[in-house]
Amino acid sequence: LIPIELDVNFRQNVDHLRQKLEEFLEKEIPVISVTAVMGSTEESAVDPIKEMYDLREEFKAKGLNFALLADGAWGGYFKTMLIDSPGTDIVPGRNILGKGPNKRRLDGFVPYCELSPYVQKQYMHIQYADTITIDPHKSGFCPYPGGALCYRNGKMRYPLALSNSEAYHGGNDCTMGVYGIEGSKPGAAPAGILMSHNVIGLSNRGYGRILGQCTATAKLFYAMWLAVARDDDPFVCVPLQRVSSNYDMESAKKLIENGIAFKPMADIYRDKKAKEFLRDCGPDTAINTFVVNLRDNKRC
Predict the structure, then answer these.
(1) Is 198 buried (19+), middle (13-18) or exposed (0-12) by CB count in 10 A?
(2) Is the CB of residue 39 less than 8 Å from the CB of residue 211?
(3) Alpha helix positions (H), the chain
(4) Are 177 and 155 in contact, with CB atoms under 8 Å apart?
(5) Among 33, 17, 13, 130, which residue's Cα sits nearest to residue 72?
(6) What is the pLDDT of residues 8-36, one digit of tens each?
(7) Which of 59, 47, 66, 46 is nearest to 18 (CA)?
(8) Does the pLDDT at position 175 exceed 90?
């Protein structure tokens, strides 16, 4: 197991990955797989899977091939924010429902924050992975113990096949307990997940709409952690996710103070600058991580 360095936003450092692959190619050491985390559970960081795929194709031509695995346990469902579906037009961030003469204004405002352009690009290319893991009990809002390991090539599941009597009954029996590392599994949980998928919908009008609201709230918390410590406070608060390169710390805090703090949600998302700031800054997939310390604390 070879660890790869992370960049300042806790995403996999592709340059360091390249160095390791060059080393293994030179020494003729096989590489079984490389994993891209699509939303880490600590910092919600999304790895650059598009660059990792391009790197795999480059090294494949040199004679070093490997499987590209996508760990979507936490962040997999955020892909639904990019999946369109036919039906009633719900405009993200506005209280308008319908089209043309049927257009009407809703009484309540429902916030929606898009994924950042970087994160959108990665989810648009997640299908390049050879396997994708999904945990519905996380961003899928379903109870334990359902889960999924999706293969591009179904034959990849055979090395994990079990033949114990509890899971395999011989012949052509292919229960879901055969392929995996646990053995037998209950069927009620995946049945409930299937119902949830069908009722809510795996699109930007279903799960994507819910996660867009979660993202909006998470980005507002990020703005609060970024600006909560005033100059005369005895403490500092530092979010681990850095602000976008479009802003410096002074301009970011000024925008939060004037366009976000203590503002009604509807006003925030009608302000183009505030909306773009929340889209581009903060966590990739709705998990905030921050550090609090005493100001000028030399012992820490």
Answers:
(1) exposed
(2) no
(3) 14-27, 49-62, 117-123, 188-200, 207-227, 249-259, 265-270, 272-280
(4) no
(5) 130
(6) 999 999 999 999 999 999 999 999 999 99
(7) 59
(8) no
